[in-house]
Design brief:
The protein is built from ten helices and ten strands. The strands form two sheets. Strands 3-4-5-6-7-8-9-10 form an eight-stranded parallel sheet. Strands 1-2 form a two-stranded antiparallel sheet. It is α/β, with parallel strands linked by helices. It has a single domain, classed as NADP-dependent oxidoreductase domain (TIM Barrel). It is globular and about 55 Å long.
Length: about 300
């Protein structure tokens, strides 16, 4: 069982390692979730409505809970998609995720992006956030947060938020370290979750085949060889040593298990310095590549 946690500003404990479900096929995600929770020691599952697999995850969660695992011991995240930002749409979207996941509440509900669809939209982040705050008051979500928020977006949100975001989930890996944003969030009491912590391309085929592969980086391979660990384990260990939560995605049992075996070694200061040198500010997930070419991170 993975017992390493970070404390949210709500006082709740969030497991440092979770199973990501982005791009997990509906035919495979249920088995992956069941294995992670019953065999690999996970207590944290990261979901989202836009992943189109929450119904299958919900079926597996019910199986797992019926087998004796306590709901209160599992941390489950879902996310509000961009076309549901209107005040009246937020509770409907949350309740739909709860229905699909077969849950009474979420441990964490995130605003997936700070931009409403269709763009341009007259719906402000403030309108959406105030509706998110109501979810906490209604008991539908124990904590709320954001994803893909930049520093300026967070600074604006903090000026009016009655409930401070508990988490900012952002793309983090050695090629996109976002050190200043991570430090800012942590100073504000906002836990950072790293998605794509293994550098997985975000939009398959969107940029051709020239994407860098972190597993093949000579520095990562050298460190992995020295510790007799996999490159994935080195990347994930680097992330949790920054006190960021990681949610690597896999549907393969051996990789799910391996991705959680991170607590029997530590990286040295020299290792961390070498990995810090890999910064490229390279994003695998960038709305500029989507239809509409939104300069979200520019």
């Amino acid at each position: 069982m993975i017992k390493e946690n970070l404390k949210l500003n709500t006082g709740a404990e969030m497991p440092l390692v979770g199973l990501g479900t982005w791009k997990s096929a509906p035919s495979e995600v249920g088995r992956a979730v069941e294995y992670a929770l019953t065999e690999a020691g996970y207590q944290h599952i990261d979901c989202a409505a836009v992943y189109k697999n929450e119904s299958e995850i919900g079926e597996s969660l019910t199986k797992v809970f019926n087998r004796g695992i306590q709901r209160e011991n599992i941390f489950i995240t879902s996310k509000l998609w961009d076309d549901q930002h209107a005040r009246a749409s937020v509770p409907k979207a949350c309740k739909k995720s709860l229905q699909d996941l077969q849950l009474d509440y979420l441990d964490l509900y995130l605003m997936h992006w700070s931009v409403a669809e269709p763009f341009p939209s007259a719906i402000s982040v403030r309108e959406t956030w105030e509706a998110m705050e109501d979810l906490v008051k209604e008991g539908l979500a124990k904590a709320i947060g954001v994803a893909n928020f930049t520093g300026p977006s967070l600074i604006d949100l903090l000026t009016y938020a009655k409930i401070k975001p508990a988490v900012n989930q952002i793309e983090l890996h050695p090629y996109n370290q976002q050190t200043r944003l991570v430090e800012f969030c942590q100073k504000q009491g906002i836990v950072v979750t790293a998605y794509s912590p293994l550098g997985s391309p975000g939009e398959v085929g969107s940029r051709g085949s020239g994407e860098p592969i972190l597993f093949d980086d000579p520095i990562i391979k050298e460190i992995a060889f020295r510790y007799q660990k996999t490159p994935a384990q080195i990347l994930l260990r680097w992330a949790i040593e920054r006190r960021t939560v990681v949610i690597p995605k896999s549907t393969h049992p051996e990789r799910i298990k391996s991705n959680a075996e991170l607590f029997d070694f530590s990286l040295t200061a020299e290792d961390l310095e070498k990995i810090a040198s890999l910064e490229r500010r390279h994003r695998f997930v960038d709305p500029w590549d989507w239809n509409g070419h939104l300069p979200y991170f520019d």
